[in-house]
Amino acid sequence: MVEQILHSISQFYPEIIIVLTLCAIIIGDLFAKGNSNSAGLIMLDGLILAGIATLFQIGTNEAVFHEVLAVDPFAVFLKILVILAAVFVVLFSMNSSELKEYQSRTGEFYMLLSGMVLGMLLMVGATNLLLMYLVFEITSISSYVLVGFTKKSRRSSESSMKYIIFGAVSSGIMLYGLSLLIGVTGATDIFAVNAALNAGISQPVIFNLSVAMILVGLGFKIAVVPFHFWAPDIYEGATFSIAAILAVASKIAALGLLVRLFTVSFIDIGTMSESGVWQTIFTDDVPWDIVIGIMAALAMIVGNLTALMQDNIKRMLAYSSIAHAGYILMGVVIFSEQGVSSILVYTFIYLFMNLGAFYTAMLFSDSFHTESIEEYKGLGHRAPMEGIAMTIFLVSLTGLPPTGGFIAKLYIFGAAVSAGWIWLVAIAGITTVISLYYYIRVVRNMFLYNPDEGASRAKFNIRSKVMLGVLLVPTLLLGVYFTPLVEFAKQSIVIFGLK
Amino acid sequence: MEFQFLGLGILSWIVFIPILGMIIILLIPDRNRNAIRWTAAAVTSIQVLLAGIIYSVFDQAKTGINNIESFQFVEHHNWITVDAVPWVGKIKIDYFLGLDGLSILMVILTALIAFVGVISSWNIKKMVKGYFALYLLLIAGIMGVFVALDFFLFFIFWEVMLLPMYFLIGIWGGPQREYAAIKFFLYTFIGGILMLLTMLALYFSVAYTDPATGESIHTFNILHMMNPDNFVDGGLLGGLDTTWRYVAWMALFINFAIKIPIFPFHTWLPDAHVQAPTPISVILAGVLLKLGAYGLLRINFPIFPDATLYFGYFMAVLGMISIIYGAFCAMAQDDFKKLIAYSSISHMGIVILGIAALNTQGMVGGVLQMFNHGIITAVLFLSVGVLYDRTHTRGLYDFGGMANQMPKYTGIAMVGMFAAMGLPGLNGFVSELFSFLGAFAAYRWITIISVTGIIITAAYILWTIQRIFLGKTPDRWEDLKDLTLREYISFVPLIILIVLLGIFPSLAIDLINSSLSGLVELVTGGGI
C-alpha cells in the first residue's frame, strides 16, 4: 500500500511542483510587494521545472493512485502542451500593459493561473469520473476569477459574471450526466464503466441522456456550437493573456478529457485490434459519433460565418477558435488511433499559431490602443515586423502552406478522408475558404491601406520581438519539416487501458 | 549528365534562386532602391541562363510523363518519412523534381517572363523592397509547380503563389485593388481546397510496393498515381469509371479551370488584370494562367485517363464557349487592359479545345499555344503599360494616331497584336492551327463554331489598332515620347521569339512532341 503510494507520488512530480509553485507565489507575494515581476518569475521557474519533470514521464504508460490518474503518452503530450501554453501566457502577462494597473495584485493573478494549470494537468490524465469533475471545476473556478481580474473594467466584471453563470449551469449538467453514468454502470473509473457497458447497456435511455449531459459540459469548455455563446463575450472582457489561455490550453485540456472519456468508456472492447480503428458501443438509436460530427460541422459553420461579421479582434479570434474546435473534433468522431494522432498534431500547431495571433493583437492593442479591426488600417506600415508576424499567424490559422496550420489541417482532413467521413471533410473544406476572408481582412487593413499622415512607426521592446520569433519559428518550420512532430504524436496515441 | 552545384541540381537552383534573391533583398536597406532592383534583375537573368542550359542539353527523344527513367534533371530525395505503423502504412513525401517535354517550355517561359517583368517593374516607386521580395517569391512558386513531380510538393508550390500575388495586386494595384485582390485570392483558394481534398483521397487510394523491402507505402508521387496497379483494393479512387473518380476529376478540373480560367470560372480575371500593375499583369497572363492547363495535363489527364475520356466532350464545349464568349466580351470593352484580359480567356479556350482533342496534333497545338500566348500577351500588356505610363489612361477612345507620335512603339505593339490575331508567319498562327486541326478530328461541329472566334478576334484587334494607332492624334497627346531603352529591353526578346517561332515552329514542337505523344498514348490507351 505505502509502496504503491510512494510509487504513485514519483509519477506525480509535475503536479506537485505546480502546487509548490502556487504556495511559493503566495508566500513570495507577502514579502515582495512592489516588485511586480517576482511572482511571474516564480511561476515561470515552477513551470519549467514541471515541464522537465513531465519530460521524464515520456514513455511511461500506467495509472497511479489506484488507477485514478493515468500517466500515459497521451497525457504526457497534452501536459507538455499545457505547460508550454502556460509559459507563453506568463510571458505575455509580464509584458502586458493591461495588467500594469494591477501591479499590487500580481501575486494573486499568478496564483490563480497556477491553480488553473494544475487543474488542466490533471484533466488530461484523469481516469475516474469523480476526479474528472473535480479537476474540471478547479480549472473553471480559477478561470472565472481570472476573467474578472481587471475589476476596474466593467467589461471584465460583466464577462466574469456571465462566465460563472454559464459555467456553473453547464458543469452542473455535466455532473448530473456523470452521476447518471455512474448509476447505470455502478462504477466510477472509466475502465470499469467500459467493462460494464460492454456487458450490456441495461437502461439505454438513461445512458444516452448521460452521454448528452456530459457532452454539454465538455462542449461548453471546448466552446463548440451550440455551447459556444460565452466565448466571444468572455474573450472580449478578459485580458489578452487570459483569453489566450482559454482559447488554447483550456480547450486542449478539455479535448484531452473528452477523447479519453469517450474512447476508453464507449468503445467495444472486442474490436481493440491491431487495426487501430475502434467500434463504439453506441446504438443506432443515438449514434453519438455522428452527433459529435454534426457538432463539429456546426462549430465550423457557425464559428467561421460569425467571425466574418466581427470587428473586435478578440471576438474574431474567439469565433475562429470555435471553428478550430470544430476542426479538431473531426479527429474525435473517427474513433481511431489515426484520429487521435491528428488531434495531437493539430493541437500542437494550433498552440503556436493561435498564441501568436493573440500576442500580436495584444502588442497592437498596447501600442495603438485599439482592438477594432477597422482601425487596423495602415498599421502594418507603422509596425512592419509585427504586421508580417501577424500575417503569418493568420495565414497559418487559415491553413495555407507553407505554414504549420496547413500541416495541421492536412492531417486532420487526411484522417477524416481515410475514415470515409467525406461530407464532414467537404464542410471543413468549404468553411476553410470562408475563414480565409476574415483572416485576410485583418491583413488587408494592415497593409493595403496607407497609414495616417504623420503617423510614426511604433516602438516595440526587444523582449516582444524575441517572443514573436519564438512563436514564429515553429509556425513556419512545422510547415516544411514536420517529421519529428508527427513521430512524437504517433508515439503519444497510446491511451492507458487501450493498449 | 549531372548538373550539380553545391550538391543541388539545376532544377533546385532554378526554383530556389529567387528565394535566395528574396533573402538578399530583405537584407538590403530600404533606401538603396537600385541595389534591390539590380539584385532582382540579376536573379532573373541567372534563371534565364539556367533555362538556356536546360534547353541546350535537353534530350528531345525522352518521353517522361509516367516513366521515371525518361525524366531529365531528376532530383529525388526523401523529405518527410514517418515510419510504418499498422494503420496508415509508411508516410512518405518526397522532394522530387524532374523535367520532361511537357514542362520544359513552361520553365523557359517562366524564366523569360520573370526577367521581362523585372525590367518593366523598374519604375515601381512604392515600397520597392517589399515589391521585389514578393515578386521573387511568386516566381519561385510558379517555377516550383512546373518541375514538381510529387503531389504534395506541387500543392505547396501552388499555394505559395497565392499570398504574394494577393499583396502584389492589393498594394501596388489600381483604385479597386482590394476588391480584385481578395476576389483572386478567394477564387484560387476554393480551387486549392478542392485540390487538397482530392490529393488526400488519392494518397489513401494509392500505395506502391517498395521493391527492396516489399512493404506497401502510401505515396504522393504523381508518377505512382498514374499506374493503375498501384491503386489499393477498396480505395476510394480505385477502379475505372467510378463515380468517385469522376468526382475527383471534376474537383481537380475546377481548380485548374479557375486558374486558366475557363468560362464560367473566369470572372476574377478581368478584375485582377485591370487592377494589377503592368508587370504583374504580364506575369499573370504570361505564366500564371498556364499553370491551370499544365496541371490538367500533368495531373488530371494521366492519373484519371478514364474520366478524361469521359469528360473530353465537356472540356471541348467549355473551350468553345470560352473562345467565343471571350472574344465577344473583348470586343465590347473600351478599356485597353480589359480587352486583353478577355482576349486571354478566348485564347486559353483554344488551349483547352486543343488538349481536349486527345490526339497528338491537338495536344501539341495546345501546349504550344500556352507558350505562344504567354509571349504574346506579355507583349500586349507591356504595350498597355507603355501607354498608361505616359498618359495615365487606358480608354481605347482616348487615343488615336499613335503611329505618328510613337512609330517604334507602334511597330512593336502591332507585331504583338497581329500575332494574337493569328497572322501566318507569327507564332500564334501555328499553335492555333494545330489546335484546331487536332480538335477538328475529334469534335467536328464544336471546332467549326470555335473557328468563328478567330474572325471575332480579328475584328476586335483590327478595331483596336484603328482606335489607337490610326486616325488623328488628340491634342493633349502631342508630345508623347517613344520607347526608352529599358522598354526596348523588355520588348525585344519577346518580339524575336514571336517571329522566330512563327517561322521555325519546329524549334518548340520538337521539344514537346515526344512527351505529348506519350501522354496521348497513356490517356487513350494507344489510340481512340
Automatic annotation (TrEMBL), chain A:
Stretches that traverse the bilayer: 12-32, 39-59, 74-94, 106-124, 130-151, 163-185, 205-230, 242-267, 287-309, 316-336, 342-364, 385-408, 420-440, 466-486
InterPro entries reported in the protein's UniProt record: NADH-Q_OxRdtase_suN/2, ND/Mrp_TM
Top-rank taxon, per record: Bacteria
Enzymatic reactions: a quinone + NADH + 5 H(+)(in) = a quinol + NAD(+) + 4 H(+)(out)
A Pfam family this chain is assigned to: Proton_antipo_M
Annotated localization: Cell membrane; Endomembrane system; Membrane
Domain NADH:quinone oxidoreductase/Mrp antiporter transmembrane: start-end pairs: 126-435
Keywords carried by this UniProt record: Cell membrane, Membrane, NAD, Quinone, Translocase, Transmembrane, Transmembrane helix, Transport, Ubiquinone
One annotated Gene Ontology cellular component of this protein: plasma membrane
Functional summary from the UniProt entry: NDH-1 shuttles electrons from NADH, via FMN and iron-sulfur (Fe-S) centers, to quinones in the respiratory chain. The immediate electron acceptor for the enzyme in this species is believed to be ubiquinone. Couples the redox reaction to proton translocation (for every two electrons transferred, four hydrogen ions are translocated across the cytoplasmic membrane), and thus conserves the redox energy in a proton gradient.
Protein name (record): NADH-quinone oxidoreductase subunit N
Organism in which the protein naturally occurs: Fodinibius sediminis
Encoding gene per record: nuoN
From TrEMBL, chain B:
Organism domain of life: Bacteria
Record domain NADH:quinone oxidoreductase/Mrp antiporter transmembrane: where: 148-457
InterPro entries in alphabetical order: NADH_Q_OxRdtase_chainM/4 (IPR010227), NADH_UbQ_OxRdtase (IPR003918), ND/Mrp_TM (IPR001750)
Membrane topology field: Multi-pass membrane protein
UniProt keyword list: Membrane, Transmembrane, Transmembrane helix
Transmembrane segments: 6-28, 35-58, 95-119, 131-149, 155-172, 184-206, 246-268, 280-297, 309-332, 339-358, 370-388, 409-430, 442-463, 488-509
Localization terms from the record: Endomembrane system; Membrane
GO biological process, one term: electron transport coupled proton transport
GO molecular function, one term: ubiquinone binding
A GO CC annotation given for this chain: membrane
The family this protein is said to belong to: Belongs to the complex I subunit 4 family.
Protein name, per record: NADH dehydrogenase subunit M
Lineage start: Bacteria, Pseudomonadati, Balneolota, Balneolia, Balneolales
